[in-house]
């Protein structure tokens, strides 16, 4: 199959799926990090969360790769765009106002 088979609608759908997967993956990471101080065994929480998040994302990326590699690339762009959007506020230096 080639990219023309899926058309623009398929590419945009894969990009949207990548955005949803990015929100789930990085949102799950944020929830996991916030729960670390409140659990008795944080190592188990971290590894369990990583396993679930990776299994979910990799399974969806594998399904997209089975259809066409262009869909996988579109989904990866959506996934990475969420990463950059979420990291942008952390990369900006704090503004110090002198009185």
| End-to-end Cα distance | 64 Å
How many DSSP-defined strands? 0
* Large-scale geometry: flat
Given as residue ranges, the uncertain stretches (5+ residues, pLDDT < 50) are: none
How many domains would you count in the coordinates? 1
Query: What is the oligomeric state here?
Result: single chain
Q: Count of helical segments?
A: 3
Q: Estimate the mean pLDDT confidence.
A: 85
Topology pattern, helix = H, strand = E:
HHH
Radius of gyration: 18 Å
Strand content: under 5%
Give the helix/strand class.
mainly alpha
Q: Which percent range fits the helix content?
A: over 70%
Biggest beta sheet summary: none
Describe this structure as you would to a colleague.
By secondary structure, the chain is mainly alpha-helical. The chain has one domain. The protein has three helices and no strands. The chain is flat. It starts with a helix and ends in an 8-residue tail after the last helix.
Compact summary:
The protein is mostly helical. Helices cover 83% and strands 0% of the residues. The longest helix is centred in the N-terminal third of the chain and has 33 residues, at 3-35.
């Amino acid at each position: 199959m080639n990219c023309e088979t899926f058309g623009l609608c398929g590419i945009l759908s894969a990009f949207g799926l990548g955005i949803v997967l990015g929100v789930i993956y990085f949102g799950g990471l944020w929830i996991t990090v916030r729960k670390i101080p409140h659990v008795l065994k944080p190592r188990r929480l971290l590894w369990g969360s990583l396993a679930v998040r990776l299994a979910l994302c990799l399974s969806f990326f594998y399904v997209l790769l089975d259809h066409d590699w262009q869909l996988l690339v579109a989904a990866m762009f959506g996934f990475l765009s969420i990463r950059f959007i979420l990291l942008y506020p952390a990369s900006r230096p704090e503004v110090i106002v002198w009185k």
